Task: structure prediction
Amino acid sequence: MTFFIDFEPNGRRVPGKDGDTILEAAQQAGIMLNVTCGGEGICGHCVVRVMAGAVSAPNVNEETELGAEQTREDWRLACQTHILGDVRVHIPPESLATAQRTQTEGREIPVDLHPAVRSVEVRLPEPTIKDQRSDATRLGETLGIPDLHIPLSVLRTLSNDLREHTFHACAFVRDSTLVGIRPPGTPALGFAVDLGTTKLAGYLVDLASGQTLASAGAMNPQIAYGEDVMARISHTMSKPEGGEQLRSTVVAALNSMAGELCVQVKRSMRDIADAVVVGNTAMHHLFLGLPVRQLGLAPYLPAESAALDLPADQIGLALAPAANVHLLPNIAGFVGADHVAMLLGSGMLEHGGIVLGMDIGTNTEISLIAHGKHYACSTASGPAFEGAHIRHGMRAAPGAIEKVVIHDGQVLLQTIDNQPAVGLCGSGILDVVAQLHRAGWLNERGGLDLSRGGGRIRQGERGAEFVVASAQENGGREITFSRSDVNEIQLAKGAMRTGANILLQKAGVSEQEIDAIFIAGAFGTYLDVQSGIDIGMFPCLPKERFQQVGNAAGSGARMALLSTEKRREVVAIARRVQYVELTTEKSFPSLFAKALMLE
Amino acid sequence: MTFFIDFEPNGRRVPGKDGDTILEAAQQAGIMLNVTCGGEGICGHCVVRVMAGAVSAPNVNEETELGAEQTREDWRLACQTHILGDVRVHIPPESLATAQRTQTEGREIPVDLHPAVRSVEVRLPEPTIKDQRSDATRLGETLGIPDLHIPLSVLRTLSNDLREHTFHACAFVRDSTLVGIRPPGTPALGFAVDLGTTKLAGYLVDLASGQTLASAGAMNPQIAYGEDVMARISHTMSKPEGGEQLRSTVVAALNSMAGELCVQVKRSMRDIADAVVVGNTAMHHLFLGLPVRQLGLAPYLPAESAALDLPADQIGLALAPAANVHLLPNIAGFVGADHVAMLLGSGMLEHGGIVLGMDIGTNTEISLIAHGKHYACSTASGPAFEGAHIRHGMRAAPGAIEKVVIHDGQVLLQTIDNQPAVGLCGSGILDVVAQLHRAGWLNERGGLDLSRGGGRIRQGERGAEFVVASAQENGGREITFSRSDVNEIQLAKGAMRTGANILLQKAGVSEQEIDAIFIAGAFGTYLDVQSGIDIGMFPCLPKERFQQVGNAAGSGARMALLSTEKRREVVAIARRVQYVELTTEKSFPSLFAKALMLE
Result:
């Protein structure tokens, strides 16, 4: 039996079968709900309200996540609710995975242009009965590359392509390889991608001028199969088709992103003659369809760590027929090519002195360069700063509280796009903790003081909690921050700080000797450095030593796209890095315990 | 409605739908009928007899091909006859495309072994938390190839493969590329293929020892889409999917051939680490899925003429994951890589002096080496010596007359496998013409003398004809050879001889100066050289100057498989060859007219 499902507020309508979940119908409608648990009914993020129509009764997962009262008001988990008739469903903004701030901005460090592919305009002599040289031979000779290598994918259309343009065309050439034939006057484009666990950032670049023509951000749709790296690795281990699902999902997302960028600048995806993709080791492996089982189990081995140039068509990207995708080298199982790109794109390699770099995300990779040595580690900082595992946490979407100031006992909030507050994103969460601590309402062990806060700190169901916005202040929606939310932040910042401290210990350098700290990543762009210092996430150093470099991995990917010399440089850098496995460090437990404290 | 179709004499039964042709049912049953016109009802080769059951009425094609009387006796064209109920069908041997002599034998010229791929047994150090180098890195270092290149297809299973064999395995290595991981003790195999217009010959070779482990011949199944090169080219032009049909058909045939050869020697196709495929330029292009339109129209341009190394998986051959297929260079549109292989495999390059080489087939390619120069041409000799266009012609299958002697007015016949005669194959056809001419029953212009032959030469429906075997002598089946059959042979041998003569003219060499003539190809193996001299197909030279070298293209393919040096050598040879386009030669018409004469 087929029913219709209407979604509010966007007004989309899709047909659905008896028993489909609302989540499935929403996916059909192109609405991306936040399902960080992969639709298992345990993350509680895909909350929707059934406005009319017949659906299955609330199950135990929904009762647990939403409570009896909410389910009575027809608030439901989209992944647990089955359609039994025509249904009208309201989706609140915080349940949407899309429309959030996906950050593509990073530094634009100038590079000498040495792109891998150039576009060469050619006019071939027309064939005659006296000149029966093959199409490949006459093209090679016209290009001055007698040993021109033409991959099968290009060869299959070469003769027709040349005739279509009456032997006057643009040849995309990489070294002595023909990448594609395009109409005369076509510049070669490049596609740089930062493939994050949570977000994708893509850039369309003119390879000849180095100019970024367009950029876009999107969610990594793999999130439907697991929120973090480990959840995705276990997804591949739990289902035989799991790895292929993850691979094809992200490849499809990159194809649509490239397609949209091309539409923006009125170009064809066939004009994309080269690509660089950076991601952490697990994202790198999942994107390529490499096995990750051995990456998820000790001793955490990558299948491949070298820089790779792979045919885009083998990967599934629909670029120029013989375009390559270049992947920067991975350093270790948990310090991947995105960190290598961040080293390049942050500018920290050129800074000199003692330099610390942190790329903050679900995993935070940290590099320390000191006295000619380079150490790196990865810390499982977790997704708390992405808003996950925080009761009212959310991603950086409209309505997210992104700044919090407690001033004279007053709580001042700033939300993204000045929308009514629906939750707290990373920078807001950091501010809450820092401001509570500075106001003396929160002690260094993470305890909220019930006697402070002018009535904003109260005993909640699961311990003390701070009312960030009361229902009264915020149009009926209450936003709180609990003791257990504070603990999540302690764990996250403690992990980062411990990683940095162990690297400093290895290098025999004190915190005060650090000349510069580079903070990269989406959250890293928006966070308040002083708040980070206040809670002990960062060492207490003058603020001018900090540089917030935005999506440095994306910048690094663009640099590698524009310069094969930079690609070579980072291979040497990746080889020089000494990877530090934190879990085997003797000092880890004591340093971690200390770093949990709010300073 | 589903019916059953029973085939005699092999007893196979298949289900068929209302309206299916008998040809389709036979294909279902794995019975390969001779359909040189591609099932258009015009070649008249797929003759079958409907013994029982309801079928469609004979159509105009059948009346034309078979005559009213035959159709009255239920002789039908399988491609034109539609099934209307359960049917029993008899297939006479001459209608079968299979079971014929497909020749794989050729010279085995010893070569220094320099295979492209070697099998290296490795034991990797087991990973530990202190040694987190990637699987690729540890394999590269164990092999002593730090920059080991691992194609994506191999990388995708590398980690699992290594663990399956507990880090002890055979690595197939080509230069610094990993071709595959196999169990310890696995030698690397190679697959050499002569991809003929009519026949396929395949060889499974041990790359380390150079030994041919098994060989097989099969029909080229593309024959269902057209008998000769031009018919197949026009097939690709008449249907959008035509090229892909031809490509996938022959790729599937090579996959089954490789599979069968591997079964014979109890090995896996994954053990095949390298392949060499040779064919004429059109077969080469169709096999790779390259466009052939420009090859079929003047000025007959190949898309590609260079030697190629292409990934087997891109081509569709299921060998070791990163096995390559090597294709020898093409010389021109109608002198392809198979001729290059023949030059190599015949031994004519090493002979010295003035050497003529002819690879006789539907197209006959001819090379002349004289005074340090090398000329080559191609002649459209046609399929007459394959038995096509000859009234009682057939391929070299059991029951084919392969030798004919006229002695004292007596006609003596020898058939393949001593079966009752069903028709004449190439060597028999050549003998008939030569023996008739020598007996004085046939004049030099191709006229049969009705006054001679002791009653065996008579006036037939379409002119004079010679009774090769009377119904009385041959169990009721009469086999004749007509004036128009003689003309086909005159055209075929005239084309070959003209090609040779023009090359001699170019080189300024007389026939008598030729030191050696190499005759290659299946028909070339079995023909009687004296008969060839008698009808003027070959120059009149002492018989010891002739060498019948069998499937020299197949031998050459094996040599190229075993030696990358030979591959390099033939690239230089192919470059040096001066291709002679016969159609633009002024002397062509007069030389051709002269060469039509039976000498």
Q: What stands out?
A: Residues 34 and 436 of chain A are 29 Å apart (CA to CA). Residues 483-507 of chain A form the longest helix (25 residues). The mean pLDDT of chain A is 91.
